[in-house]
Amino acid sequence: MIEFKRSGNNTIASNRIPLYVGEFVYDESKESFLRNGRGYWIDEETRIATREVEWKDGVEVSGRDLYDGWYTRSTTPKPKPKPKPKPKPAPMPVPAPAPAPAPAPAPAPAPKREEPVPLRFSVTGSTKWTDVSLQVTDLKISSNCCNDLNALDLNRFEWLRSIEIGDECFGSVETFKIDGLNRLKTIKIGSNSFTQLKQEWLSSYHTTEEWDSKGNNQSKSFHILNCESLESIQISEFSFSDFAGDFELKNLPQLQSIQSGSFNFYYSSFVVRGIDMILNI
What we know:
With 281 residues, the chain is mainly β. The protein folds into 2 domains: 2-65, no CATH class; 120-273. 3% of the residues lie in helices and 30% in strands. It has one helix at 208-215; strands spanning 2-4, 18-27, 32-42, 49-56, 59-65, 120-123, 138-141, 162-165, 175-179, 186-189, 221-225, 232-235, 246-250, 257-260, 269-273. The strands form 3 sheets. Strands 6-7-8-10-12-14 form a 6-stranded parallel sheet, with no helix packed on it. A hairpin with a 6-residue loop joins strand 3 and strand 4. InterPro entries: LRR_dom_sf. Residues 70-115 are annotated as: Disordered.
């Protein structure tokens, strides 16, 4: 009779591990089988008998060890059992290479600003500057206009191509500055504008000191800068006559003509830079 190792899976014969082979007797009083007679202990790993024993009603009465199932020890070295090979780990799946990123689209070019339809605007004594469109291309100031203003800003009209200012205008403005109007081609200013010292007053001053006291105003200045298309500047007599501060023309690469009348900038210093094409002064 064979006694198997108790384990959780003995229902399949190939899974059973024998521990003992020998004779048994049924004890009715204990209602169980007892080892009785000769039997053998079995090694779990090698399945070879390791000991021979004699039993009497479940009690071992004698026994002796066996060597590889034999009564005597063999002189041949016992081969070591080969270790069970460990299962090789399943190879890790190699991830598929990520697709190359799509090239970034080229930045869209900045939309080209369309030139506005030519727009001419005339400013009269009753006109408010807030009425002047920012897209005006040709601006005309009528004579005897805007003498109540003490400041003038034309740089916000970026589409200007021409500026024409009549006589007797902007008498209270102390700074004339145009900067960065790259479409502007012509500037024309009439007589006796941008001044408090006008032509008809010349005869009323009998000495140079009297004239100097009225006309030598160092706080008044004139600047035209960074207008890449400007071709001509025309200023009639006595305009800016009391401007004694800076007179500056700078970075006007297309300027070809400067026409200045009598007593313009009578006390001003003259600074000209970045002008290469002047043909007529």
